[in-house]
Amino acid sequence: DGNVLPASGQSLLNLASVSTENCYKIPEGVQIHILADVVSPLCGHQGATYTFGNQKGRHPTMFAVVDQAIQDFYEKFSPATLEIKGAGAGGGLAGGLCAFAQASIVSGIDTCLDLINFDKKVSDADLVVVGEGRLDSQSFAGKAPIGVAKRTPVGVPVIAICGSLAEDLPPLPFENIQAVFSILEKSEPLEDSLKNASLYLERTAANIGHLLNMCKI
């Protein structure tokens, strides 16, 4: 009936049509590129809600409802967005920009590495060290450390230093990473880990340095 729905996720389930009349118009000639390395689609069990819902505070019991609401919205407004690889990045923000601002998604890590001329700089490196807060299966979905490791030439060893290690990691080596080190030596409260992160990192780096010196790397 042309009624405006309240601004809530629940309203998406009652949506009949979408109007962009009051949306900001992108100036002619302006192109928006989204730097993202997450390859999650917008919807489905590999999509934005199921992948990022927990860390955004959404209770798992609501995943199916939220996912369906997003699906319904884009089926009415921009069905093609549902097929875009990476549209689920940023909790679905990438998909929204693609649909409303005609943005395109490009590899964030590759773009950044190109900007700093990484390939030339790493060509004569003896060792590459990458870092990650928590190394887990999601790290393989386009996280920067994995992107750096993949761009490192074969023959240049890559090691990773992280805050914690998940149990779902594949056996080493993986994705060109030869060794992984956690800065935590024992189970500690999160508050303590954050407070002393720099100390733990320095200690771990020193141990790695001594080990490399022993191996003459």
From TrEMBL:
One of its GO terms (molecular function) is glycerate kinase activity. It is an enzyme of class 2 (transferase). GO terms for biological process: organic acid phosphorylation. Keywords: Kinase, Transferase. The keyword Kinase applies. Pfam families: Gly_kinase. Its EC number is 2.7.1.-. It comes from the Bacteria. This is Glycerate kinase. It comes from Streptococcus pneumoniae.
